[in-house]
Specification:
Radius of gyration: 50 Å
Order of helices and strands: HEHEHHHHHHHH
Number of strands: 2
Largest sheet: 2 strands, antiparallel
Helix content: over 70%
Strand content: under 5%
Structural class: mainly alpha
Number of helices: 10
Oligomer: single chain
Distance between the termini: 20 Å
Length: about 325
Amino acid sequence: MYQQAEQWYLQKIADIDEFAHTVSTINNVTDLASQAPKPHSQALTQQSDALALINTTTFNTDSPWLKKALNDPQLATDYHTLTSLDLLYDNVQKQHINNQWLKDTLVLNTQRQAKVIEQQKQLAYQDIIKSLNTQAQRIVEQIEQAQAQQDGKIFANQRQQQWLNRINDSQKTLEKLAGQRNTDDEQLRLDRIKGVLHWQLQSTFPQRLWQHKQSLKQLSEQLTQLELQASRFSDLSTNPRLLSDFEQRQQQSQTDINIIGDNISQLRDKTDREIRGKISIFAQQQQYTLQQLLLTTRHQMANVLEQMSHADNGSSPIAPTAPTDDTAAKGVR
C-alpha cells in the first residue's frame, strides 16, 4: 500500500510539473479554459451593441489542476478580467476597421469634390441662368397677352407664323393692286385661308395656353435647381476643404483608438503575467505538499521494512498503519 501511495504521489508530481510547464510555455493562458456562455447571455447581447461589451462567459476546463487553481477567487477574477480585455480589444479592432472605412470614404469624397469643382468650372452658370430667365420672361409676357386678348395668333408655331406673314404680305399686295384691277376673287380666297388659319389657332388656344403655363412652371423649377446648384458650387469653390474637419476628427479618432488598443494590450500582458505567476506559485505549493507526503510515505515504508526485519530476527512485530487512498490524496485536495 505504501508503494502504491508512493507511485500515486510520483504520478501527481509529474502531472503538476507538466501542468506548470504547459502554463509557462503556452501563448495564451485562456486556451487552458474553455469559455461557455452563461444562460440567456446570447439573447441579451443581441439586443444592443453596448451589451456585447459585457463579459458573459464562465470557465470550464478538463485540467484538474487548473480547476483546483480557479478555486482561488483572485485567480478566477484575473481570468475573467483577461477575457473581458480580449472582448474589449475585439471591439476596439472593429472601431479601427470602421474608422479606416471612414478614412477611405473621406479620401474618395475629397477626390470627388475636386472632380466636381473641375467639372462645374466648365459650366457658365450665370449665362445659363440669364438665358433661362429671358425665356421665362418671354413666356410670361405671352401668357399675359394671350389671357388679355384671347388671341390664338400669340401662340402660333413657326409654320403658322410663316402663313400669317404670307397672308399679311398678300393682303398688302392686293391693296396695292385694288386701284389697278378687280381683286375680289383673290381677296375672297385670302379671306378664306385667313379664316381657316384663325379657326385653327383659336381652337387650339386653350390647350396651348395650358402648355405654356406648364412650360413656365418647369422652367421655374429648372431655374430654382440651377440657382441652388450654382450656390452650392460657389460654396464648394470658395471653401474646397469642407471635408478637412471630418478628416481631422477621423485622424483624432484613429489616434484615440491606437492609444486605447495599446493600453488594453499592456494591461492584458500584465494580467497574463500575474496569472502565470499565481499558477506558478500554486504549482510550487502543490509540488511541496506532494513532496512532503511522498517523504512521509517513504519514512513510514522504511519503518515498516525495519519492523519486518526485526520480526525476521525474532522480535515482536509492530503493526503499521497503512495509508488509505483517502489519506494519500488528502494533501492535494
